[in-house]
Amino acid sequence: MMSSRILPLQPLTAAAFAPYGDVIDCASAKEALSINEGHTTRFHDLAALDLGREGGHPLISIFRSTPKARPLRLELMERHPLGSQAFYPLSGNPYLVVVAPKGLFDQKAMVAFLARPDQGVNYHAGTWHHYSLALGGVSDFLVIDRGGPKDAAGANLDEVRLDPAMTIDLEEAEL
Amino acid sequence: MMSSRILPLQPLTAAAFAPYGDVIDCASAKEALSINEGHTTRFHDLAALDLGREGGHPLISIFRSTPKARPLRLELMERHPLGSQAFYPLSGNPYLVVVAPKGLFDQKAMVAFLARPDQGVNYHAGTWHHYSLALGGVSDFLVIDRGGPKDAAGANLDEVRLDPAMTIDLEEAEL
Question: Is Signal one of the keywords (chains A, B) (predicted)?
């Protein structure tokens, strides 16, 4: 049986997540504008979107994700070399964000964040990440990512198997 | 005193909204893909985004909108000639979507929709619309629209004053 290692969990903050991408929330806004005759505050431009490379264009999709079985065992990481990928939670549940730095995949450098229900994330192009890890029930996410002519050939998806598998102790984190 | 006219309210459906833009919800998806080792359904490409004209690029922002005072009186419509603008509600509240066809503004052609908390909208470039009309309390919306070099000069915003003002009878609609 393959052994596993425990990945500690930390709160998601813009500063800690900066090497991997953007945290999408009002608190991280550099600019807040009053518009609409004073009825709206626009928390402006919350993510560095990178969706136009090599004929790419932005897409809006909804991901409906079922939590993985417990104990939570992570076995696969992925990256999108040609574009950013943003997730914003729609179901009022927290979720997990598991990343590793761009470049050659380094399993020892993996980091796990606990995201609040009012925090989105935008993975920068090339950031290794686990696929969406819902908590607390089936959860929807609004996703803004790249569509492109070569997607069918897998040009914008690389995957790597973990060895050993990693686990996150959700009971320890009271999740 | 300026007189006003009552604008009837209808449910938001993809078919009724098609002349103005897209309804962003899972039910409107043309494609639903199983991804992430079966843990996620991707409701794919839910809006016709148009964000690249004349040096434009996509932005993600959060709009925090306060409901207008009642009786709800509409006095202003706007359009973005250079790009689409998508709204997805984040606060679990319904909201209003008020539009008029592209081209020369025709007040008699205005239409008001009631959007559910699980429905986003994407206004196509040039569609006349009222600014975001929250219901039920201060509401956040994730907004995907166009940033561009000429925005400061108002190149992507036209406004028109209504004459007479229009009202929506929210009590009649039990809102």
Answer: no
Which chain B residues have a beta carbon less than 8 Å from that of A68? 39
Q: Say how far apart CA B112 and CA A97 lie, in whole Å.
A: 39
* Chain B residue with the nearest C-alpha to that of A48: B59
Bond from prior residue into A164 cis (ω within 30 degrees of 0): yes
List of chain B residues whose C-beta atoms are within 8 Å of the C-beta of residue A44: 59, 61
Question: CATH: 3.20.110.10, 2.60.120.480, 3.90.1010.10, 4.10.520.10. Which one for A5-168?
Answer: 2.60.120.480
Element (H, E) at B10: strand B9-11
In the chain, the amino acid numbered B65 is: S
Number of inter-chain CB pairs under 8 A, A vs B = 133
Residues A4-14: pLDDT tens digits? 699 999 999 99
Quote the tokens at residue B5. Answer: 């006219």
Distance of alpha carbon A64 from alpha carbon A15, whole angstroms: 28
Rounded-to-integer distance, Cα A97 and Cα A13, Å: 11
| Segments making up each domain of chain B, as ranges | 5-168
pLDDT tens digits for range B17-29? 999 999 999 999 9
Burial of B152: CB neighbours in 10 Å, binned 0-12, 13-18, 19+: exposed
Tell me which chain B residue has its CA closest to the CA of residue A25.
Answer: B62
Beta carbons within 10 angstroms of residue B114's beta carbon? 18
Contact: A39, B68; criterion CB under 8 Å: yes
Among candidates A26, A29, A60 on the partner chain, residue whose Cβ is nearest the Cβ of B24:
A60
